[in-house]
Specification:
By secondary structure, the chain is α+β, with helices and mostly antiparallel strands. The chain has 2 domains: 391 residues; 39 residues. 20% of the residues lie in helices and 27% in strands. The protein contains 9 helices and 18 strands. Strands 1-6-7-8-9-16-13-12-11 form a 9-stranded antiparallel β-sheet. Strands 5-4-10-15-14 form a 5-stranded antiparallel β-sheet, covered by helices on one side. The longest helix has 28 residues. The relative contact order is 0.16. This is Glycosyl-hydrolase family 116 N-terminal domain-containing protein. One of its GO terms (molecular function) is beta-glucosidase activity. It holds the Pfam family Glyco_hydr_116N.
Amino acid sequence: MVSSNLFHCTKRSWPPEEYISKNTLQLFDFDSAAPPEQAWRRRLNSHANLLKEFSVTFREAIQMVRLGIRLWSYVREEASHGRKAPIDPFTRESCKPSASQGVPLGGMGSGSISRGFRGEFRQWQIVPGICESSPVMANQFSIFISRDGGNKNYASVLAPGQHEGIGKAGDQGISSWGWNLSGQHSTYHALFPRAWTIYDGEPDPELKISCRQISPFIPHNYRDSSLPTAVFVYTLVNTGKERAKVNLLFTWANSIGGISHLSGDHVNEPFIGEDGVSGVLLHHKTAKGNPPVTFAIAACETQNVSVTVLPSFGLSEGSCTTAKAMWGTMVQDGHFDRRNFDCGPSMPSSPGETLCAAVSASAWVEPHGKCTVAFALAWSSPKIKFLKGSSYHRRYTKFYGTSERAAQNLVHDALTNYKHWEEEIEKWQDPILKDEKLPEWYKFTLFNELYFLVAGGTVWIVQIREMVIISQEK
């Protein structure tokens, strides 16, 4: 039984003022750019502690030897059929578990991608029953800033530089990018299904940046809550006396985690959609006969925001355009060639080659002015195939059809509907968050623990009767 004292605790556990200056909070006090009063918070330079894995004592091992033999036999049997057992205590994971997770992306039942509090995309669960824990480090947001007069220029990945490849001389891959962010003045704030990352003067001391991550997890909205998509809204506030040219970059590898990017036959393709939404489709050919997946990364062009793309670049020296060359183009020009939209599909990637894409959004921010730039990510994997062969269509196909190219429509609808999603999310959460009878820790924990409905391997399928209708329409 829970003591009533827990619900009469008045101490505020993580006041935002301890993580962000009051001045910055006031600057973001519009358009949901500021993080909420109640949230789980971390600094980006915080150390992610490794989690201790479960182990048994010698005495317990003796007592459980019969169970261990049965479990070992089961694991070997599954492996003989090319399947991975859901419980396998005999195989060590390549990526050690750590306390680095944040709010996952997407709605329910269409596969999920988690995002760490430092910005890395990890915990890939696109294929049912398979979870790739390691982050794909080519998937990043970056920023390039220049000001009138040309005296101040900044170029940095918007994540702390913490991975093995940094510092390798002559590297043509992501190690050649500007991993300059320390994370000391940047903070993460989680209140599922949204999260805020605030860059309080990093990398440019005169530019305040808020990145708001939004996923469609909305009570009683069983359409949008099934969609495999997420939106990233950047709010830029220029506190300097000079006009700032800000170029935001979204890079994405054609991968579903692990070493899937090396399997070959992947294709990237630029697109221009309606309402100013444009980006790149990344068609991924999965291994072992699993259904294919198509990603879409996009940004929304407005009167003040210009969008360009680089449909394909590689991480190795033999690539037509290397990651290093791509970064150099952004540092020098701040955008890509508009003619890239006319390129058409790329050549299929070769085995061992990593194929990536980039979307750039550029805007001018006046002195003491504000600007909003919105990106979106979607993945379309309409058919799910379980290890024993049975297959179904995911629920979102009821609304978007069974084409993998639905990813383009998904990012379009995400970028045009996210404000309505936020209104519905706030309407759902406000009665709890504003209830003064409840302690702060309880309020944000109540919502944040719902992450498991997205990142816990949930599969949401179309009913058999509805599948027949979809098949007939196709």
